[in-house]
Amino acid sequence: MCYTKNMEKRVIALDIGGKRIGVAISDPFGEYAMPCETYHRTKSFWTDVEAVAKIAKDRGAEIIVCGMPVNFDGSESIQTLKTQEFVDALRSRTDLPIVLEDERFTTMQAREVQIQGGVKRDDRKKSIDAIAAAYILDGYLSREQKRRRAEAERQSRKWTIKSGRRNFTMDMEKLSDEEYEELNVIELEDGEGNVESFLHIATIEYKGQKYCCFQVAEPETEEEEDEIVIFRLEGEGEDTQLFEIEDEALLDEVFAEFCAQYEQYENAEDAKRLEV
Questions:
Q1: pTM score above 0.90
Q2: N or C end of the chain, less CB within 10 A?
Q3: 45 and 90 in contact (C-beta within 8 Å)?
Q4: Distance set, CA 10 to CA 41, 65, 195, 197, 252 (Å)
């Protein structure tokens, strides 16, 4: 069996100070941050901006993360405004996207690492900014990893229409039972490529969101015959997508709303015996 892992965009982080700029870079897979260098600022603002832009380019970065210093309560400081000025100038000298990251405690963390590592006081300035930049980058990478995991989970809960109609709100009242069933049996494919056939029985709206209610098209058991499958509906036409509902409480609420609407048109006892 072959194990593969996707390469991510390489990210560079900057801890922008008045005298020094710490630089850190991510590994090719975007999993961890590595301190790499400290740039010592000159007396020329634009020389520093150009130099940092070149460092990002030379390091092969595709994203720049800049630490934003703020007070402990989150309010802006004088250094916040100075850093923002540098970031704005950097945007004019590079086409790379720039992301801002809170750096309130990064210098403290970097200093603790140096003390624990036995770095002498006189030598700490040589690496503290790069270490602080690594903490800034680590915060960004951690958040991106969580976002990617959440998106992967979301995609795994997504179902797309493999065959069948895509307009789930069309008027079906004038169709015969045979025409209705033929038109409403659709094939859905989940995020893992599994395909199942469902019979669409209703689309309802609940708290501003549309939900599609289905039954298994060819039930094998009595439980499947009575089971209602509910998806959250997003998009229209070719962009139609269906998502599983993770929140059990919300699922119960939507099912209750389905039953309430179902009772207006069908026998109330039929609705009560259906199970999600």
A1: no
A2: N
A3: no
A4: 24, 11, 37, 42, 44
Q: How far apart are CA 266 and CA 54, in angstroms?
A: 70
Q: Where are the alpha helices (DSSP H) in the chain?
A: 45-58, 78-91, 106-116, 128-156, 177-184, 222-226, 248-262, 268-273
All domains of the chain, ordered by start, with CATH?
11-155 (3.30.420.140), 158-273 (no CATH)
For residues 23 and 130, the answer to whether their CB atoms sit within 8 Å is yes
- Amino acid at the residue 78: I
- The token duo for 48 is 């520093």
Residue 184 in tokens: 């409403």
Cα 3 from Cα 12, distance rounded (Å) = 27
Rounded Cα distance between 162 and 272, Å, is: 31
Torsion of CA 55, 59, 60, 62, to 10 degrees: -60
User: Which tens digit of pLDDT belongs to each residue from 233-246?
Assistant: 888 777 788 888 88
Distance CA 7, CA 57 (A): 18
